[in-house]
Description:
single chain; 320 residues; mainly beta; Immunoglobulin-like; 2 domains; six-stranded mixed β-sheet; five-stranded antiparallel β-sheet; 1 helix; 1% helix; Putative cellulose binding protein; CBM2_carb-bd_dom_sf; CBM2/CBM3_carb-bd_dom_sf; hydrolase activity, hydrolyzing O-glycosyl compounds; signal
Amino acid sequence: MKKFAFLLALVLIMVSSIAAGTLAMYNVSIDTLAKGSVVAKEFIFVGEGTDSFQEGLKIAPSETAQWQFKVKNYENHIVSETDIYYKLTFNVQALPGKAAIEPLTVTVKDLNGTVLNSVTGVGTFDVLGQFSLAVNGQERDFLVEVNWPTEGTSDINYAGINYGSMINVDAIASQIPLKATDPDPVDPPQVSVRYETTVPWQNGQSGNYQYEYKVTITNNSTEPIYNWSIAFNLPTDKLTSAWSNANLVSDTPKGYYKFLNPGYNNQLTDSILPGKSVSFRGPAKGMGTEAIRSVIVGGSNITDLTNVDLLCQFGKASLN
């Protein structure tokens, strides 16, 4: 089974706060009648990873990767002299310049196997904890588990270097209880794109395989998309033209395609109204089993959209 790039970066940023102050000495007619001072208690909060943390790890459906790290309230022989409340924030997102591997589930557990929190795809969540004041130092171990389930979207949709996910872990500590951060709402994709192919056939003269493709763009937003365009990558198969309802304006560099609306001066074809779709199709060379990637949908009235709900379906008997 093919494996696909997945980069995990773990960053522990420890933030501590120390309350300190001094009572100034005061004088009366008798020198040094009394004096006093206040010294802040030791406040120690550190994090430690293990050698198992990796970057550039490859993962495939049915596989699971795990990493372990800990936080503690002591360093060497010095133990924190206060209660410590900490918050670990896990942020799962796409690598810069790539699309996230949406089926991945990131779960945080303790060493007893208790699930503390998790997210599928992309998102942010917190794990809260506490070290109560004690003579001896304390520590907590955490297990980060990344799993790609076998069920769901076909792994072929996430093949290659255009997909990668990243995990960042930040930590903050305080002497007063902390609250979990409300997760930012994830905006639903404004557009859906479906890429379909037929069963390939062999050209009797050249011996090369050919197939027919179809692209459907659906506007999920409440605003129209005027003078639509779509661009994507298809590294191996080659789309040779568009028969109707679109103009192929670029197929360079190799594997990059951009299509514009047909320019019929017709709102039903040149624009995509809310809740409506436009489709175009054409001939292609190859086996037709490769997914399009890095999809961008544009319009004269909108900025380019990269948050696209993509579905790829291969080997159909016909395209309706």
